[in-house]
Amino acid sequence: MYIAKYNRNENREEQLDFIRKNSFGVLINEVNGRPWATHIPFTLNREGSKLTSHMSRGNQQWRHFTSDKEVMIIFSGPHSYVSSSWYNHENVPTWNYIAIHVYGKIKIIEGDELKASLKELTNHYEADSINPVSVEKLTPSYLEREIRGIVAFEIDITNIEAAYKLSQNREKEDYENIISELNKKEDVGAKAIAHEMKKRCPY
Is 171 helix (H, G, I), strand (E, B) or coil? Predict the structure, then answer.
């Protein structure tokens, strides 16, 4: 994706932390000559080198996974409109956001690998539940029936591109005023962007 030089984040640890905290992504590849996208949750391994997930077997996307072509996963974070009325000079409005694109080679997994990925995914998202669900607690016959309805896969990450568009090109007065104005909004995304800007303030 296009990323202006002052919006590019190449800090690997920050990239991986962002993916783990915003792990509901969009998997994109080519199906019959057209882009195809599926919105699904992912888990990232401890080393930050591999993503795993699964989709419905009825989704034809998986039939077009090939080992010789990369897939792309988009992870989106907070975003907010920025009014040019917040600047001390004439300018145009813009949008601040954080987004990451991950590229990698995909392969289908089955058997014990599939079950392990389901356990990891379920345990991750059930961590805050009062009465957490676990794969181990499911009736074996029910689990096997449900597994027949999905296709699991893993993606070996080949590249990560991270855009942190946070008004880094603005002067100190404008930068601080944007933070102030964003914090006045009730919108959660606006406040999250203000928080990120304050945390990364270059002044």
Answer: coil
Range of the domain at 37: 5-170
Q: What amino acid occupies position 200?
A: R
Q: What is the CATH number of the domain that holds 84?
A: 2.30.110.10
> For 14-37, what is the mean pLDDT?
97
Kindly state whether residue 175 falls inside one of the protein's structural domains: no
pLDDT digits (tens, 9 = 90+) for 30-82: 999 999 999 999 999 999 999 999 999 999 999 999 988 999 999 999 999 99
In a domain, 59, yes or no: yes
Biggest CA pair distance of the chain:
67
Stated as kind and residue range, the H or E segment containing 107 is strand 94-109
Q: Is the pTM of this model over 0.90?
A: yes
User: CB–CB of 178/86 below 8 Å?
Assistant: yes
Q: How many CB atoms lie within 10 A of CB 173?
A: 12
CA 163/CA 186 separation, integer angstroms: 24
- Supply angle C-alpha 46, 50, 52, rounded to 5: 100
CA distance 78 to 56: 28
Total structural domains within the chain:
1
